[in-house]
Amino acid sequence: MTHIYAVYSAGGFGREIMPALQANYRANDVEFVFVDDNIQDEQVNGVAVLTYERFTAMSAESKKIVIAVADSKIREKLADKCEKDGIQFINLIANNAIAYEQAEVQEGLVLFVYALLTVNVKVGKHCHISAYSYIGHDCTIGDFVTFAPRVSCNGNVVIEDHAYIGTGAIIKQGTAEKPVVIGRGAVIGMGAVVTKSVPAGVTVVGNPARIFEPKAS
Ligand SMILES: CC(C)(COP(=O)(O)OP(=O)(O)OC[C@H]1O[C@@H](n2cnc3c(N)ncnc32)[C@H](O)[C@@H]1OP(=O)(O)O)[C@@H](O)C(=O)NCCC(=O)NCCS
Questions:
Q1: Is 214 within a domain?
Q2: pTM over 0.85
Q3: Distance from residue 99's CA to the centre of ligand 1 (Å)
Q4: CB of 212 closer than 6 A to ligand 1?
Q5: Which residues are CB-neighbours of 202 under 8 A, at least 6 positions away?
Q6: Which domain does 21 fall in, by range?
Q7: Ligand 1: does its nearest atom lie under 6 Å from the Cβ of 133?
Q8: Based on the domain organization, do 126 and 80 belong to the same domain?
């Protein structure tokens, strides 16, 4: 019987992380698949694409999945569905990423190539930490948080659930008494330099980061 390792979504991030999954788990009795209900192709980059229905109907010794959908709200819905169907979640830590043993992570993590979790870091469920992103000491990251590539998240920062941190953002360190808090669902624009806490649900851009008000069209 086969062990199936799946990436949920054959979109951009899903295709990026598949080679890291294959590198970690390749074995004779392992099969890799994409699960995607929106793609008609039978294969993407040489890997079979199955609908969720076909994936759940497959007989296998074990089925494990990592959810690569960028939209954190959709990611949460898919995670609920997989959990109800008894599918186990993978923690995909690319083999050149580093998570020190003093970092505590929950299920469904993607820690992509060259990413680093340092000491006394907590990371919630189904977070994506993309290539070259760094999370410093004593940071607490909520559930369904997304880090685009090359984020510098310095020490004593709290990032609440569903926040999105854009490429190359830099977040100033807080202190143990007064961490810098990125509120639930906040979006940090690419390249932003965040020098203080950001309220829930807002978007900030620039250096120093300020609330982004799209121009009225
Ligand atoms: C901030 C952000 C969410 C705004 O998205 P948006 O609403 O689609 O914004 P637009 O592209 O329509 O740009 C609107 C204006 O904001 C400016 N702008 C957009 N993003 C900006 C940023 N990160 N910093 C500074 N200005 C920015 C644009 O130049 C534009 O200015 P203009 O009105 O003077 O022409 C987005 O640009 C962003 O930074 N997303 C993160 C992207 C990322 O990291 N992707 C990683 C993929 S792996």
A1: no
A2: yes
A3: 30
A4: yes
A5: 183, 186, 187, 211, 212
A6: 3-90
A7: no
A8: no
